[in-house]
Amino acid sequence: MKIIKINAVWCPGCLVSKGIWKKIQKKYKDNEYIDYDYDLDEEIIEKYNVGEIVPVVIFEKDGKEIKRLIGEKSYEEIIKEVGDLL
């Protein structure tokens, strides 16, 4: 599973999410985690059709998007929504 995380330095929710995703990465090591910056990685933002709300986390399997999380989420919310994918 490829997990693509899109954050921005000006986004308070993104700062909170970083710690949560570090915890998830530590627990679910079999996934590939990639970070992009909303302001610096314009091609990626366009490719994935990311709107103005960040953070955005995209879950891909075999090159296809299977799930997208938008906005700040707690650890518990993330596990509830996508725990079976991790």
Description:
By secondary structure, this protein is of the alpha+beta class. It has one domain (2-83): Glutaredoxin (3-Layer(aba) Sandwich). It has helices at 12-27, 42-47, 75-82, and strands at 2-7, 32-37, 56-61, 64-70. It has a four-stranded mixed β-sheet.
Question: Would you summarize the structure shown here?
Answer:
With 86 residues, this protein is of the alpha+beta class. The chain has helices at 12-27, 42-47, 75-82, and strands spanning 2-7, 32-37, 56-61, 64-70.
Helix/strand layout:
Blueprint: E1 2-7, H1 12-27, E2 32-37, H2 42-47, E3 56-61, E4 64-70, H3 75-82
Parallel strand pairs: 1-2
Antiparallel strand pairs: 1-3, 3-4
CATH superfamily: Glutaredoxin
Number of domains: 1
- Which architecture per CATH? 3-Layer(aba) Sandwich
* Overall SS class: alpha+beta
- Radius of gyration of CA atoms, rounded to a whole number: 12 Å
The helix content is: 25-40%
Helix and strand run: EHEHEEH
CATH class division: Alpha Beta
Strand runs, count? 4
CATH fold category name: Glutaredoxin
Question: In this structure, how is the largest beta sheet organized?
Answer: 4 strands, mixed
* Continuous helix count: 3
